[in-house]
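User: Before I run my own analysis I want an independent prediction to cross-check against. Here's the chain; please return only the structure tokens and, at the end, one sentence I can use as a sanity check.
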Amino acid sequence: MTPERDGGASGKRDAALLALRELVMAATVRIHRTGAGYAADEPGSFVGSGFFIAPNWVLTCAHVARGGEGGELTVAYESGPGRGTTHVPGEVVATLPEGVEQAVPGKWPAPDLALVRLREPVDHECVYVAERPASYYSEGEVFYAGWTVVDGRVCRLDGPIAVKGTIGDWSSGVQLRLGENDLPYGISGGPVVDPVRGEVIGVLKSRADHGRGGTSIGIEQLRTLPATVPGQAVRAEHDDLYQSVCHAHDRYHRDRQRQSQPARNTWADVQSRLGARPGRTLTAGERVQLLGRLADLPPPVSTRGLLDIMESLPEFEGSAPLPSPRGWRDGLGALYEGAHDEGVRGLVLDYAMRVLSAERPFVTPGTASAEAALWEWVRQAGEGRLDGARRRRIEKQRIERLRQRRPPGTAPEPAPDRAARPAALLELVERGWERDHWDWQVYVTRPGGARDCVRQEERTPTDALPERLAAPLAEAFRQCDEPGWPAILQVVLPHTRLDLPVDGWRLRPDEPPLGVRGPVVLRCGDRDRLPGEPGFEDFAPAPPESDADRADRWRWLHAHGARAEILDCDDGVPRPVPEHFELRNLSPGSVPVMCRYGEHRYEDDTEALARVLLGGFGVALWRRGPARSAAVCGEFHRGAAVTVADARGARHLPERVHELRRKLLASHTEAYWADGIALFYDDPEQPLPGGAGELLEAP
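Assistant: Structure tokens:
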């Protein structure tokens, strides 16, 4: 993998190759059997290798994935030196070819690929996969990585290996022949990397039947994955597994590039240091940004529709590779090979404009902003680089696009009027002189403001709250639930303890968490104890204008549309939450969102939520938990924006967050961005308890 030294340039390339190796190894995983009798770190449970292709998705060989039991596996990985090993349960979601349940060991038919979905969200690195087919690589040297067993323990293995041509046909997928190295047991499923362009081009499939070496199947064979809902129209990104995984991959690398820590290499950084120029025109950074913007859009309506777009490009002289391009990234990869050097940039920009004008299989609340972001990329990429005629043509395409009207997205399912329904309310008051002990009351609130107390108690330790609350909350829910519409639970907390994860409590071991059972929202119980303005008393009641703002904002949000406003993060760069008098200048349709709540990067972070309350907001979103990775940050921003916009005003937000929590429990990867989400939903028209009502003991 390392070329002969030729001075300083060679030394820089060696350093770039070393950085590439570190990125590859951080994303390469080992796969183990799960279940009784198997220890995750023992060689006896080890079945092969794989790698993270997108957040919470592992690509490996089908014969490796089927080495588990019942499609259940354990994925083990090390994100860096000294960071220890993380073990995560996973399930096999898809295998290629379909319909093969078992095969002779080592004889699984091509393409022998499998996608494994993690059963819980975790932070990890992902490889960068090529958008060009592996068939373009017929000679030279590639780099492979994986795991194997040496001296009774599982350990890493990597190195260079020569490409000896191709084998196979288009129907089963062209594979690269690799040799002359020995490829030991366990290495199957690992990534195959092009060291010139710094991208993963295939999956190490097997050892050779005779002699040394092996084969590699191209990443593009994933295009043969069927839609998740065969025979039905795609109504959401996750309806098509291929598009879902590829879009998550491209957004990950776009967000990682935007948000990376200064000392942390990204794939685009390393590709730039290698001197790679995708398509002979784009820089590595430009490609990452373009693919990320394409991934924010709905996918093509069909493969035929995508081919029509490519064939409509006057300067495209190539032919579509096999398997046929299926996603926007596939079409871009085909352009690299189908134009003269001097015309590639213009061809790429023409392609992007046709993507903007393409028919959509569905639209989301974020589609319009995604189209605007893609147009901005096209404009910047073309400035000073295109002749006047092409610039005018692109501008004409943009104007035509603006004249088109998209049908609105699917309206949310109507929910019963919450004001006309009873609700459960849990008030928790922390005993300031006895930390981690609480006085609490459970109420049933009735339409019109009536309130009955189900039970109250004093001096309950935090860890005993779920058990003590089980019976009174069950009684409150029985009084409030309706068929198909579980009652909302309002949890009243002091502003300094709004991070208490009540929605994650299980009242009984065999029941789902409270936030999965029904909608759970938070309210503030001490607005008279918010931090005062700098230079004044330490605590003060919320100013009158804050209460007025809160009522006005609440009415606006429930009568008009809403828009997420990220307060503590700017494209992955942390920033302090603005002062409350600045927040009051936000539009009445703004819903404050915090993705870094609890990180305490700034001295006054503990007052972040108090500022939101003083700013007059009754609706806000944030996520709990320790410091999050920059890559996950981008998905949280996107997911929060779509969730708020899709709620059509704040009225449906409790149900939207409830649905996200249900999907999280069911291991739906499209909802993993919402891990730890909390919803502040404090209705000023529903006063909080001022005293105990009639005590109704639960049985």
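Sanity check: Residues 197 and 275 are 8 Å apart (CA to CA).
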